[in-house]
UniProtKB/TrEMBL annotation:
Transmembrane segments: none annotated. This is SDR family oxidoreductase. InterPro entries: NAD(P)-bd_dom_sf, SDR_fam. It comes from Pararoseomonas baculiformis. CDD domains: SDR_c (cd05233). Gene3D superfamilies: NAD(P)-binding Rossmann-like Domain. Belongs to the short-chain dehydrogenases/reductases (SDR) family.
Length: 254
């Protein structure tokens, strides 16, 4: 129970990678707060978290809304008794090179990271005061940030911004005893997710992507969650400002 007594807040934690991260922290002994837009999935995941015998808090939050983030983070901190770990996971999944896709991508993928991090900072500082280098931020980006793309330029660009911002966060927050790191997942498949839909709707793209992965399968959300636990744990106490690629070698075949 590596996170016994710790408090983790997962922004965008009701499904997919976020859900797996939230459940991984709960299994490791942490109390967990999650938010997302859909109340139904939120409550299901909150119940799964609580089943591990830890505090579980969930509330709807539109991460494109500055005010909603400003309300949720203090509520989560109050419910858990503080914040030791913040995970910024949500994405607007902007794909087309148009105004609407850029707007949602910048609002959710970039500004939600900035706003949630700022909102959580007082509690992270408090946690760091009790255990220096134990408080941390983990941002979720994508390997799309590391290569050119024709399919989703806004998504790739904002994930690159998240990776760069993580380095600045790490530099700024080091003086306050807080670490900041980033994970860049490859193609991750889960029920209801993008790659399950692509497997059904665009099998040629699915197979082309699969052919890039040396192990011959898509990644699983749980594999990203394990990386998040490592970066937030004392085992990574001397790691900050880094982006960890979790892609099963997908970039090697790109």
């Amino acid at each position: 129970m590596e996170f016994q007594g710790k408090r983790a807040v997962v922004m965008g934690g009701s499904r997919g990678i976020g859900r797996s991260i939230a459940l991984a922290f709960a299994r490791a002994g942490a109390s967990v707060a999650i938010c997302a837009r859909g109340a139904g999935a939120l409550e299901e995941t909150r119940a799964e978290i609580a089943a591990h015998g830890v505090k579980a808090f969930a509330a709807p939050c539109d991460l494109a809304d500055e005010g909603a983030i400003a309300r949720f983070v203090p509520e989560a901190a109050q419910a858990l008794g503080g914040i030791d770990v913040l995970v910024n996971n949500a994405s607007g999944f902007g794909r087309a090179d148009d105004e609407a896709s850029w707007a949602i991508s910048l609002a959710v993928d970039v500004m939600a990271v900035v706003r949630a991090s700022h909102a959580a900072e007082p509690w992270l500082m408090e946690a760091a005061g009790h255990a220096p280098l134990a408080a941390s931020i983990v941002n979720i980006a994508s390997i799309s940030a590391l290569r050119a793309t024709k399919r989703n330029p806004p998504y790739a660009a904002v994930k690159a911004a998240v990776m760069q911002y993580t380095t600045s966060q790490a530099r700024i927050l080091a003086a306050k005893g807080i670490r900041a790191n980033c994970i860049a997942p490859g193609s991750i498949e889960f029920p209801g997710g993008t790659w399950e839909k692509r497997r059904q709707d665009d099998p040629a793209l699915y197979q082309a992507t699969l052919s890039q992965i040396p192990f011959g399968r898509m990644g699983r959300p749980e594999e990203v969650a394990e990386a998040a636990l490592f970066l937030a744990s004392p085992r990574a106490s001397w790691i900050t400002g880094q982006s960890l690629v979790v892609d099963g070698g997908q970039l090697l075949g790109a």
